[in-house]
Structures are given as C-alpha cells and as structure tokens.
Amino acid sequence: MNENQVSQTEYIAAVRANSARYAAEHGTPPIAFVLTLGCQQNEADSEKLAGMAEEMGYEIADKPDDASLILVNTCAIREHAEKRALSLVGQYKHLKAKRPDLVIGMCGCMVVQEHRIEEIKHRYPYVDLLFGTSSLYRFPELLAQKLERKKRILFHDPDDRTVAEGMPIRRTSTYRAWVSVMYGCNNFCSYCIVPYVRGRERSRAKDAIVREVRELVENGYRDITLLGQNVNSYGKDLSEQCDFADLLSELDTIEGDYLLHFMTSHPKDATRKLIDVMASSRHIAHHFHLPMQSGSDRVLQAMNRHYDMEKYLGIVDYIREKMPDAVITSDIIVGFPEESEEEFEETLNALKRVRFDMIYSFIYSPRKGTPAAEIEAQISPEVKSARFDRLLAVQNEISLEKNQPLQGMALRVLCDGVSKNNDAVYQGRTEGGKIVFFDGSQELEGRFLTIKIERADTFALYGTIIEK
Ligand code: SAH
Ligand code: SF4
Ligand code: F3S
Hints:
single chain, 468 residues, alpha/beta, Rossmann fold, CATH 2.40.50.140, 19 strands, 21% strand, globular, binds S-adenosyl-L-homocysteine, binds FE3-S4 cluster
C-alpha cells in the first residue's frame, strides 16, 4: 500500500459512519448500483468499485430503483458506447427528482475527455460525482467529500500513476475471475481513444499478481483472465526483470484445476517465447486473441500498428505449429478513413488465409482528439455498413467450417449454468471460449465437464455430457 491508499481508510470509515446513520434511520442499509459499459477492464474496475462500496456500508443491488448511490462506469471506444452512457444517466434524472439525496456518479474512460467533462458539468447538473480510471482507488475519498460537502465533485488527475493494491473486490462470479496485470496503453493506434483516457502503461508487481491468482485458485476459481490493453508490454516499466512470458511461466506453476487466459495481445510484440511458454504450459488456455484490425499493410501503417501482414501471418503460423489445437480470434475494423475497396478486399483475403475461429468486427467510429478522426476522407456510413456485412458473411462461413470438425469430439467445457436466453438448456465455454449448449443441472455451474459435441453451427456447439 502506498501513502495515497493508506489515507483512503479514513474516508472509508467516514462513509461507513454515514451508512450506519442511514441504516438506523431507515431500518435498512443504503443501496449502491454499479452499471458497467465497455470492456473487461471496466468489468474488473466495477468489481473494485462495488467492493469499495460494500466496505463503505452499502448493499449492492442489480437495479437502480432504490439506490442511494448509482455509478455508471463508462466506455469511450466508439460513439455508440458514449451515447448509451449519456442516455442511461439521463434516465436516472427522474430518480434524483424523487430522492434528492441520491448520488449519481460517472467514472471510467468517457468522462475524462475535456469536452465530456464540460458537457457533464453544464448539461448534466444531476451528476454529482465524476472521476477517471487513474483515480479509481480514490473513490472513497471522493464520495466522502461529496457526502460531506454536498457539492459536486468532478475530479480528474491524469498524471496519477499509482498502481493501487489491496482494493476490495466484489467478484460477480465464483469461478471466473479477471485479474488486471497492467493499466493504460502507450501504443496510440491512430483510431483509438484508450491511451488518452487510461494514461500510460503501468505494470503491477509480479508478486502481487501471483498472490492474487494463487488465492483465486485456492478459492475454487476455474478460469482466470489476465487483463491489459497490451499484455505483451507487461513488465517493461518494472525494475524487476520480468516480461509477460516470464509472468505466465510463474503463474503456471500454481497447482490446481484451472485455466489461464489473457487479453489483449498486440501483434507488434507477441514473441515466440510467449507462444513456447503457452505450448508447454499446464494451465494456459490454447486460445490466442490477436487483433489484426486490417489485412492491408497501407492501412495498418496508417493505423500506427507497427506490424505488417508478413509479421502477423508469421505469428499465426508459429502459434499453429506449436499448438495445432489453438483457437485464434481477432478484432477487425472496417471503414478506416481512406480505406479503398482493394484494401478492404485485402482484409477479406486475410480472413480467408488466417481462418480465425471468430472475430469481433467493428465499424470505424471517429474519436475526437485521435489522428484518424482528423483525416478528411472519411468513409461514408453506407459504404462502412456494406463492408461490415460482407466481412461478416466471409467470417461466418469460416467460423462454421472451423466448428464443424468438432462434431464427434469430446471437449472440456466450463459450465456457466442455465442459458440466459433459454432456460431449458445449460451453457458453458470450451478452453478456446466457444459456447456449448447441453442438457445440465444447476449443481454443475462452475464445474469442468466433458461434453461430446453432436452439432455445430456458426456461433455455437451443441452436445451431451459424457463426464462430470
Ligand atoms: N488493446 C486492444 C484493443 C482494445 S479496444 C488491442 O490493441 O488489441 C478493442 C477493439 O476495439 C480494438 O481492437 C479495435 O478493433 C476496436 N476499436 C478501437 N477503437 C475503435 C474505433 N475508433 N472505431 C472502431 N473500433 C475501434
Ligand atoms: Fe487502443 Fe492500440 Fe492501445 Fe489497443 S493497443 S488500446 S487499439 S491504442
Ligand atoms: Fe475498455 Fe471502453 Fe475504456 S473498451 S478501455 S472501457 S474505452
């Protein structure tokens, strides 16, 4: 713990006293509701926010209705995500009208952009509390100030490089867990807002990560995902000599029945050493999420990605050589400014060459303050959406072809309980993250099962349990 964190304990105590007064008055503790938008990093941050709120005497609810504290953890990656956050917060205005003591907070990536701070300041007067990801650990302090002074706290300290340890975490699952290994990003891909809103790369100390993973395994966690914007940069800022492959090797020595995943891996510094460690490990899932973004060297350069297709394909081939069973997934952006029809077709051809199991595809969304947003020749919405549809059509066929050979095979699947969309079936995920549906029962949730795959379609596998 560093100095800043130690000082949080007094604020936690102050808010807890406030919560106790509320409980004495109302016969029930105050309720907090944390809403998460965006990626796994935000999910992990929200588990810490909920953990801190719990420590401060709040009961955590899964809806905003009776809450005394609402926190919206925002994302800025595409325009859609920002609009969603603002519209959600807009919906909470009427709750505030009913309960003036309600505290509405916004945090995360979107709310540290200057233009958003101004917008929230003037157009969302009912937002009481605002802070960015670098100040996450100061949430108790900021909330205590808000409660004490009854005035708005809009706080942003972009230069805070604290790597906070020891925050309480209220995990949403008892068998899947996120573990952040580093924060921030130094890459400045020309389309991306993340380096501006999450600051520079900071790695957690290896020992702290090892301790956290060991505790999770001891507590029965079966699937642990290490998080960072570019995990391959892990350790570059530490005094201790330890790169990401070294970290994985050490984690792999922890005894237990569990799988380790990681995301995201930037192709510019995905090393053979990392792939060798994965191939010879006992616990690291044979799953590589390796965002390609585009199949055109010209576009990759304009995106500031620092690799070309030759390098990218070299990594894919090496993964397949060392781990023929590896599931490889990717992120693709269509409609980057100036992307020509030929360049888009290079992306289609790259999909056919690589044959990813699955991709996450995105329509380029200009982000204020990033270099790509300044390029004049933006692609029209019609062309972007037509390219998006063509991309999906090509990938869907490949995904189906990748899934079909799994029919007849017995796969290890971690059961996630009853399906969210159909309560007549159970669902789980394979080591490579593929969704499997099967007949199951409640007590299987959180357990590894062996499932014989009987049918495969583009997005899922269907099978029968052969071993529990
Ligand atoms: N750090 C990760 C990516 C995090 S963002 C990496 O480098 O791989 C997840 C994905 O969102 C990116 O891989 C990219 O495909 C997409 N993305 C980022 N900025 C975007 C934008 N402005 N428009 C559309 N998609 C974007
Ligand atoms: Fe964004 Fe690139 Fe950093 Fe990923 S590596 S978060 S795409 S800037
Ligand atoms: Fe994640 Fe969105 Fe921030 S994708 S890093 S929450 S901008």
